[in-house]
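Marked as duplicate of an earlier ticket. Keeping the data here for the record.
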Amino acid sequence: MSVLSLTMAWAAVNPVPLETNSPNENGLDACGGCAGGATCNGSSCQCSSGNTYCSNSCVNTAFDSNNCGSCANACPGVQSCCSSLCVNEQASSSNCGSCGNTCPSNSTCSAGSCVCNSGYVLSSGSCVACGVYGKPCCSANSCSGGPNLTCSSGNCVCASGWLPAGGICKISAA
């Protein structure tokens, strides 16, 4: 047997590992050909920072509804992937309408919008008590904090002939 035959026989049994991204005789790298923007690193496809290689493409598992938190973890129905968790953006008070949109205190998420609870109105981005002295009027310009309150310029104030005293309206001394 010649030296060349021995060298070829040894090479067939002990193949030289392919270098990263070095094409083999079929034009493929050691990974077998990475797709979706991935590059071959050793023998596995790698994506840029923050992305994961799932089903031949690079995805952000923190926000991909088909690969939420990990590859092939699809969110059911109308749920979306927010910070690697499947959530219903139509009802989630911490992801209302979009990921990370948190509803203020004294409100709920309804149909993807933050809605103040009964007895509260939106004022400067917060849901505040309404209908009581010194607070905004409730819907239909109503004040329910006592019979002596009236709505004026969007706020509940004491009715004519009544004066504020400790958060309520008392009859004024004549």
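See parent ticket for discussion. The chain is about 5% helix and 30% strand.
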